[in-house]
């Protein structure tokens, strides 16, 4: 058996493989390292570890285990970076290892070209602020999540401009009756037009029942009045929102997104059965399935990667796209997250 060429650890950041047919082949055909002016191949620790594990090179005074332990001590998160590097290289991708960057790698090859990738452990926190900062650096990126067994799941994050085909309509003014956590409209003409033109509510007797979010939107637009039958009086918009906050503390955030989605020509219905805030249609819900599931989160929202995994997997299983509406005091950003088959 031919012994592999021996490389030398020159620093914590660089491993030197002297000029040879092997070094030229690793560089030109396999995309490892960089050639210096003398034709020597200079490898980064992740590259050297991969080549060492696969017995393409040897390392002076170190085997794979001792070199790996050395790298764990000198390079933060080396172990999870290596698992992803190893997985992608085995799949035939070329990787540019990034330093002093928001991202860990730039990936190219096969169906993915020139995309950035960030790496996390399943136990790391998922910060929406961090996701937004990634998207400022690149309007699409991949996240590689390493679970506790070493398996890797890949997600694609991208901005999305949501648009639908529902035009705005003029409605006759109607009256709604407050019934617990919903509002009922018994006036046939008003109920019929709300339901048929923009799919507000759901049939209830000969009228329609509205969710709190639909009722709040229509009340704010002065399309309906809402009567409290216990007090026999009209409820003003601010009073209605104050009432809604008792059972739906996030009503203000959700209403902001609901308004915006309506302006974009979309139909918005509850996403409760899918574990999200909204399911969203681009066109007539009687003829089409919802294209999107939308969760509303504040930009300060911090959670776990398992939260995202559940949402994205469910959306994928029901053939919908998972979208997070990330809000701050001035802006709403829509972020599409998809499970990626690498």
What best-fitting shape do the alpha-carbon axes yield? elongated
Largest sheet, order of strands side by side? 6-7-8-10-11-23-22-20-19-18
> What's the N-to-C terminus distance?
35 Å
Number of helical elements: 10
- Average residue pLDDT: 93
The CATH superfamily name of the domain at 167-248 is: tRNA intron endonuclease, N-terminal domain
CATH class of the domain at 167-248: Alpha Beta
Q: Can you describe what's shown?
A:
- The chain is an alpha+beta fold and 342 residues long.
- It has helices spanning 21-28, 45-53, 64-74, 78-90, 128-137, 188-198, 212-220, 237-245, 251-263, 305-317; strands at residues 5-11, 14-17, 34-35, 41-43, 57-59, 94-97, 105-109, 112-121, 125-127, 140-146, 152-159, 174-179, 182-185, 202-204, 207-211, 224-228, 233-234, 267-270, 278-281, 292-298, 302-304, 321-327, 332-340.
- The strands form four sheets. A ten-stranded mixed beta sheet has the order 6-7-8-10-11-23-22-20-19-18, sandwiched between helices.
- Helix 7 (212-220) runs antiparallel to helix 8 (237-245).
- The longest helix has 13 residues, at 78-90.
Features:
single chain, 342 residues, alpha+beta, MutS, DNA mismatch repair protein, domain I, Trna Endonuclease, Chain: A, domain 1, ten-stranded mixed beta sheet, six-stranded mixed beta sheet, 23 strands
């Amino acid at each position: 058996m031919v012994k592999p060429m021996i490389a030398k650890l020159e620093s914590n950041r660089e491993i030197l493989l002297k000029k040879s047919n092997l070094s030229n082949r690793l560089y030109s055909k396999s995309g490892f390292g960089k050639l210096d002016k003398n034709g020597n191949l200079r490898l980064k620790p992740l590259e050297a570890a991969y080549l060492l594990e696969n017995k393409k090179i040897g390392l002076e005074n170190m085997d794979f285990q001792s070199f790996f332990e050395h790298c764990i001590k000198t390079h933060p998160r080396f172990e999870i970076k290596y698992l992803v590097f190893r997985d992608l290289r085995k799949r035939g991708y070329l990787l540019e290892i990034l330093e002093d960057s928001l991202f860990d790698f730039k990936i190219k090859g096969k169906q993915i070209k020139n995309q950035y990738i960030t790496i996390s452990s399943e136990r790391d926190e998922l910060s929406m602020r961090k996701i937004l900062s990634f998207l400022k650096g690149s309007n699409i990126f991949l996240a590689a999540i390493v679970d506790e067994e070493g398996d890797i799941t890949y997600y694609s994050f991208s901005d999305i401009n949501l648009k639908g085909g529902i035009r705005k309509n003029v409605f006759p003014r109607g009256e709604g009756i407050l019934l617990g956590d919903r509002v009922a409209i018994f006036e046939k003409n008003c109920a019929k037009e709300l339901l048929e033109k923009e799919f507000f509510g759901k049939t209830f007797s000969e009228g329609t029942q509205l969710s709190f979010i639909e009722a709040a939107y229509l009340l704010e637009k002065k399309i309906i009045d809402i009567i409290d039958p216990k007090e026999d009086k009209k409820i003003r918009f601010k009073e209605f929102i104050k009432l809604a906050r008792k059972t739906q503390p996030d009503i203000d955030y959700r209403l902001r997104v609901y308004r915006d989605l309506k302006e974009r020509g979309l139909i918005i219905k509850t996403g409760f059965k899918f574990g999200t805030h909204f399911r969203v249609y681009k066109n007539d819900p009687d003829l089409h399935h919802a294209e999107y599931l939308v969760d509303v989160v504040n930009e300060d929202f911090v959670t776990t990667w398992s939260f995202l995994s559940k949402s994205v997997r469910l959306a994928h299983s029901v053939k919908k796209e998972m979208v997070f509406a990330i809000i701050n005091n001035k802006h709403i950003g829509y972020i599409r997250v998809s499970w990626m088959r690498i």
